[in-house]
Write a structure and sequence with these properties.
The complex is a heterodimer of chains A (about 475) and B (about 325).
Chain A lengths: L3 E5 L10 E7 L2 E8 L6 H4 L8 H4 L8 H16 L5 H27 L14 H8 L5 H13 L1 H7 L8 E2 L2 E2 L5 H22 L4 H5 L4 H5 L4 H13 L11 E3 L14 E4 L2 E3 L6 E4 L5 E2 L11 E2 L13 E4 L5 E2 L1 H8 L2 H6 L5 H24 L17 E9 L2 E10 L2 E8 L1 H5 L11 H6 L12 H9 L4 H5 L1
Parallel strand pairs in A: 6-13
Antiparallel strand pairs in A: 1-2, 2-3, 4-5, 6-7, 7-8, 9-12, 10-11, 14-15, 15-16
Helix pairs in contact in A: 3-4, 4-6, 4-7, 4-14, 6-8, 8-14, 12-14
Chain B lengths: L1 E6 L5 H6 L7 H7 L3 E4 L9 H12 L4 E7 L2 E2 L10 E2 L4 E2 H8 L3 E7 L1 H5 L12 E2 L3 E2 L2 E2 L16 E3 L6 H12 L15 H4 L10 H5 L28 H4 L34 E2 L2 E2 L8 H13 L3 H7 L16
Parallel strand pairs in B: 1-2, 1-3, 3-7, 7-11
Antiparallel strand pairs in B: 4-8, 5-6, 9-10, 12-13
Classes of the chains: A alpha+beta (about 475), B alpha/beta (about 325).
Family (chain B): Belongs to the [NiFe]/[NiFeSe] hydrogenase small subunit family.
InterPro entries (chain B): Cytochrome-c3_hydrogenase_C (IPR027394), NADH_UbQ_OxRdtase-like_20kDa (IPR006137), NiFe-Hase_small_C_sf (IPR037148), NiFe_Hase_small_N_sf (IPR037024), NiFe_hydrogenase_ssu (IPR001821)
Protein name (chain B): hydrogenase (acceptor)
Chain lengths: ~475, ~325
């Protein structure tokens, strides 16, 4: 096959719009360019508004990570006001946030990722009929069970947050609703229902059994549930070799509590854990349709290049930490937190590893949330009074389902003067930087096989979707 | 009935909300009604070139289209080109696709307040020059002309809400499939009346507080949020408190105000979302259809008559004074 260029889009079953340009030679991808083709300009929309309005506006950046945006905004405002939220209110925010992340992982696995294995190209594989039965788009039995389980799980957000997505219940001082003992019992029941779904369908075994896996060899003998089916598919198709990343991971740390975050903050590079310093973040604009210089988000701007100059190819900026590319997401979180199975997958950094990072996190989060709910004390206050000053600045760093999410706000005279957001997919789907270094997904695509006559290569689809991109967050 | 669903400049949250439909789930519900997707970005297998070929077949008339659903606002920037949102892989703007495909569809449905009126995407300085499909805010005439009607003769059906309730979307589609949605079924902003004839105030659990104007003074207190906290539930259309969300939820049930998200221009209320604008201490913006003088008279009377239980609870974060017991006379 001669040298050629392919445009893949609309690239669906991701959140938002995505176009991938591929250079192909000898049946392999030689270079990839990720384009986020939508600009909305939320960072500009917020300018001039009172800082509290970020609590209403920013969740609407994203209909799938809405609560993550709420929590980041609430934390940025609390930071600016120099307050900490009520202890119990923070527990409610953590609960709603973790429920959204759980639901997002389930949505990704069943609705966005697995249907690709039902394509006719895989007919005749030993697992094909089972995959069709479980994961046919809109019809598979596994996919429908997940849709039901997800809707039931969101009853927790309905009860505490009024609705999902786009709640206003999470505030800098805590949460707007004080749950009663009855509410707490009901939430525990909803969680129990979700565990039943996970254990009968997704894992086909007790969650604790999966969480206790600590080596790839142990993982390779997992045979039950949809997870077992995926493992069979992954090993048959060599997804442990596909879409390999550089093995550099970043997590802002997830779900704060008095005894520290549920999942630790930090980096992972060259096989070792490191500390994370937010001062070392820069957003590079060299290949984005954005005007201005490389800057830390406290000094960054959002000035779209109306002429879409030819150096640019995306509305996405390129965030770097200490000038280096980092991958973020559930796998990164679990590696940085030090779970042995995730650490064992850190160097593999493959399509398979990303999926198992997510699945592992589902099991661990469910177990942690059951304990977390038991610790909510309905007799306490769930909201601290907070006065937002006229002038201030603050940041809110959280972990959305897809990884590290940061809000950086500044305001003067009661009006927002700067609001910069770096979303997880901004990291993962960043374009090249001024050194010409491609973003994580661009690098992971190099080497992907492209079959003769394939205009939308299946290998590329698996790799791109393994990141669970959220393009609406990316380009906010 | 087939549907082509396109996601324009929005957050995708109306799709995510629709996936919260229950008893049965949205997939079984639509299948049972004979409704299928030609393509939905989050749900369909087809991607890339397969989708481009489908769009071509619809545009050429080779493939009939029953319903075109558009989620998200339509961006016209920069400078009217629509290039701030090019539909990936097609080299054409979503503005162009919308204008080209809408006349081919039997019905055009705008899903969510971004698609209906512009919504949050058009807030502030509206950097992308976002608008609704047929309305720019409350003004008719936007990406599609004011007098646009689809093949069915209906204007764009506006399922407004930020996000939309899953049932608003599914029931609108079911009514269209049953041929039971006429011009009379839509209100003056094109919203289906089955939910837009109700107010968020209807069945709000804070109604007893409202009756006495027993008001919460800050978020987390359980009193009525109309007087101080910006709640517009007495004017906002929606059956949010009748059918509830995600089980037993609604905005006011969770202790924060209704921000009127089903209305054109809700994104720019002219005041903070959680603060009631007042003139001479009196809230600006009174309940729908209520004569002002009567409202003032009734409010001052009922306020003076507020029972202790209701007054105390209104500024508490939970019920602290229970209803007094009625002991049957022996």
């Amino acid at each position: 096959m001669s040298d050629t260029s392919l445009i893949v889009g609309p690239f669906n079953r991701v959140e938002g719009d995505l176009e991938i340009r591929l250079d192909v030679a000898d049946g392999r991808v030689t270079a990839a360019y990720a384009n986020s083709p939508l600009f909305r300009g939320f960072e500009r929309i917020l300018l001039g508004k009172p800082p509290t309005e970020a609590l209403t506006i920013t969740p609407r950046i994203c209909g799938i990570c809405s609560i993550s945006q709420s929590v980041a905004a609430a934390r940025a405002l609390a930071d600016a006001a120099g307050v900490t939220p009520s202890v119990e209110g923070e527990k409610i925010a953590v609960l709603m946030h973790a429920v959204e992340n759980l639901a997002d992982h389930i949505t990704h696995f069943h609705l966005f990722f697995m249907p690709d294995f039902t394509r006719p190209i895989y007919q005749g594989r030993g697992w094909y009929n089972k995959a069709v039965e479980r994961f046919t788009a809109m019809q598979g039995s596994g996919l429908r069970a997940a849709t039901d389980a997800r809707a039931r799980l969101f009853h927790i957000v309905g009860l505490l947050g009024g609705k999902w997505p786009h709640t206003l219940a999470i505030q800098p001082g805590g949460a707007t609703k004080a749950p009663t003992s009855r509410d707490k019992i009901r939430i525990a029941t909803d969680l129990k229902t979700f565990r039943r779904y996970l254990e009968t369908q997704l894992f086909g075994a007790p969650l604790e059994a999966f969480v206790n896996l600590s080596t790839v060899a142990e993982l390779d003998s997992w045979a039950t549930g949809d997870v077992g089916l995926f493992l069979q598919i992954a090993n048959d198709l060599g997804l442990n070799e596909a879409g390999r990343g550089e093995g550099r991971y970043l997590s802002f740390g997830a779900y704060p509590s008095a005894s520290g975050p549920m999942f630790k903050q930090g980096t992972w590079a060259n096989g070792a854990r490191g500390d994370f310093d937010p001062a070392l973040i820069r957003e590079d604009l060299s290949h984005a349709w954005m005007l201005g210089d490389t800057a830390h988000p406290t000094r960054g701007q959002t000035l779209p290049d109306e002429d879409m100059g030819e150096d640019g190819y995306s509305w996405c900026k390129a965030p770097r930490l200490n000038d280096e590319v980092f991958e973020t997401g559930a796998l990164a979180r679990q590696i940085v937190d030090g779970h042995p199975l995730a650490v064992a997958l850190a160097q593999e950094a493959s399509v398979r590893a990303r999926i198992f990072g997510r699945v592992l996190e589902v099991a661990r989060t469910q177990i942690a949330l059951e304990r977390h709910v038991a610790q909510i004390d309905p007799s306490q206050s769930f909201m601290e009074p907070v006065v937002i000053p006229d002038d201030g600045e603050g940041s809110g760093l959280v972990e959305a389902a897809r990884g590290a999410l940061g809000h950086w706000v500044q305001f003067r005279g009661g009006e927002i003067t700067s609001y910069q957001i770096i979303a997880p997919t901004t990291w993962n789907f960043s374009p090249r930087d001024s050194n010409g270094v491609p973003g994580p997904v661009e690098a992971a695509l190099v080497g992907a096989p492209v079959g003769e006559g394939e205009d939308t290569p299946i290998s590329v689809q698996h790799i791109v979707r393994s990141f669970d991109p959220c393009m609406v967050c990316t380009v906010h | 009935m087939n549907i082509l669903w396109l996601q324009s400049a929005g957050c995708g949250g109306c799709t995510m909300s629709t996936l919260c439909a229950e008893s049965p789930n949205v997939l079984e519900l639509l299948e049972g009604a004979g409704i299928s997707f030609l393509w939905h970005p989050s749900l369909s297998l087809e991607t890339g070139a397969e989708v481009r070929r489908l769009l071509q077949r619809i545009e050429s008339g080779e493939q009939e289209l029953d319903v075109l659903c558009i989620e998200g606002s339509i961006v016209r920037g920069p400078n009217g080109t629509g290039k701030y949102h090019m539909l990936a892989g097609t080299g054409r703007s979503m503005l162009d696709w919308t204008q080209s495909l809408a006349p081919k569809a039997r019905h055009v449905v705008a899903v969510g307040t971004c698609a209906t009126y512009g919504g949050v995407t058009s807030s502030g300085e509206n950097p992308s020059d976002a608008t609704g499909v047929q309305y720019e805010g409350s003004h008719r005439g936007a990406a599609l002309a004011a007098d646009f009607t689809s093949k069915s003769g209906l204007p764009v059906v506006n399922i407004a809400g930020c996000p939309t309730h899953p049932d608003w979307v599914t029931e609108t589609l079911l009514l269209l499939a049953a041929d039971e949605l006429s011009l009379d079924s839509l209100d003056g902003f094109g919203r289906p009346r089955f939910y837009a004839d109700h107010l968020v105030h209807h069945a709000c659990p804070k109604n007893e507080f409202y009756e006495y104007k027993a008001s919460a003074t800050k978020l987390s207190e359980i009193g009525c949020m109309m007087e101080h906290l910006g709640c517009i539930g007495t004017q906002a259309v929606g059956d949010c408190n009748i059918r509830t969300w995600n089980g037993e939820g609604s905005c006011t049930r969770a202790g924060y105000p209704c921000i009127n998200c089903t209305a054109p221009e809700f994104e720019e209320p002219g005041h903070r979302f959680t603060e009631t604008p007042k003139f001479a201490g009196i809230p600006v913006g009174l309940p729908s259809d209520m004569p002002k003088a009567w409202f003032m008279a009734l409010a001052s009377l009922s306020k003076a008559a507020t029972p202790r239980r209701i007054g105390v609870n209104a500024t508490s974060d939970r019920v602290t004074v229970p209803p007094s017991l009625k002991v049957p006379k022996s």
